[in-house]
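Fill-in record for Methyltransferase domain-containing protein.
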Amino acid sequence: MDRQRRSHLAHADHPIAAPIADESVARLLDRAVADEADRALDLGCGGGEWLRRLLVRYPWMRAEGVDTHTAALERAREGAEESEVADRLVLHEMDAAVFASAHRFDVVLSVGAAHAFGGLLPTLAAARELLAPDGHVLVGDGFWEREPDAAALSALGATWDDYADLATTVDRVVADGWTPVYGHVSTAGEWDDYEWSWTGSLSRWALDHREEPDALDAYKAAAEHRSQWLSGYRGTLGFVTLVLRRSP
């Protein structure tokens, strides 16, 4: 099964592609969107769920999203049309790491997309170039909740230095010239809901569409992911979402 189609099916019941509950998403957006903000950008927007919610919640704002995946951007357009915010959304099909704009943005988002830039700090470097002087960055990435063992690293296809612990992660962000003005560490409950939704949605689709050529592959992918999570990285990989401003 195509990776993007699999991701779309797996996120059917949890459209935010990160272990963040709806109420946490709303709170993070409220901390990132100042009263005078009127323009937002999502680097690596995927299906556009963050931008859709932002545009619904703040009807005066306009937004742009950047992603390389045609199908994901089409879902973003469809979601925006369903929520009647499509007239305030512009989507760009291109590599987020090389996106440039003639104007700056009051809010720059990039949650769970650091791989597109080569890590958290390169993600922030890209955001800095596009951020208005008093703007906010909303960025989310992984960290080690505890020292990863071989099972966790194998399940994630990761190495020990792909992430740091939470304190070191925040220290690196601060040393890079940013001040956290809010942050959210995903809870065990948010992680479990996300992973059960991911594996459950994909499994359910496979069981309901047994005649589809991709059904068996989807079923196996869900089972493998569930095993990697439960026997590998559950309780080891954390996720932090930070609201940042430039330091003085």
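KEY FINDING: The chain has nine helices and seven strands.
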